[in-house]
């Protein structure tokens, strides 16, 4: 019988991979990608989920695009790490995870799906984490690369989900504290969610 893996807030960390200024005009559906990521960070604040951010060679590629409001995370932003390694599994990130042995699940979004996101997912799966990739939260310069990257992650034991599905898994219970704030986010983001799904999932097979 296959193992069932669920997202639990206390055991989860969000990873935002390399959504930097120089990519804005190169990445397919970049504006929609930013909308999905911004929604996920709002969910992080409501559910008290820590976030780790990386930036690939920021001297050349710029910093995280300012449309993504990292300062609003406050102490939930564990680190914003400069890297040369394509994978997010840098020594600094591994140290942060080692300090938090309760973490079992990684929720991953960012770019590019077939390079840094893929290599990060494989490394975290190999390290024993349950990796959940947000299908409407990843992209690449060439949209044709994306379904193959997601398929490769799934073949290796990762889980492919959507931003709203992951959010509801983490909320779990309409009677839980904070549900009103959670529900307000879902309602406020409804049009953006539709826009993002239609743009970023139109070319992606899930099986």
Tally of alpha and pi helices: 8
Net shape: globular
Give the percentage of residues in beta strands. Answer: 15-25%
* Proportion in helices: 40-55%
Pattern of helices and strands: EHEHEHEHEHEHHH
Major sheet details? 6 strands, parallel
The oligomeric state of the chains shown is single chain
Counting helices, strands and paired strands, the structural category is alpha/beta
Low-confidence stretches: none
Query: pLDDT average, as an integer?
Result: 94
Radius of gyration: 16 Å
Record field, number of beta strands: 6
Distance, first to last CA: 19 Å
Strand order of the largest sheet: 3-2-1-4-5-6
What can you tell me about this protein's structure?
With 207 residues, the protein is α/β, with parallel strands linked by helices. It contains 8 helices and 6 strands; from the N terminus they run βαβαβαβαβαβααα. A 6-stranded parallel beta sheet has the order 3-2-1-4-5-6. Helix 5 (145-155) links the parallel strand 5 (130-139) and strand 6. Helix 1 (30-47) runs antiparallel to helix 7 (179-188), helix 1 crosses helix 8 and helix 4 runs parallel beside helix 5. The chain is globular. The model has no long low-confidence stretch (mean pLDDT 94).
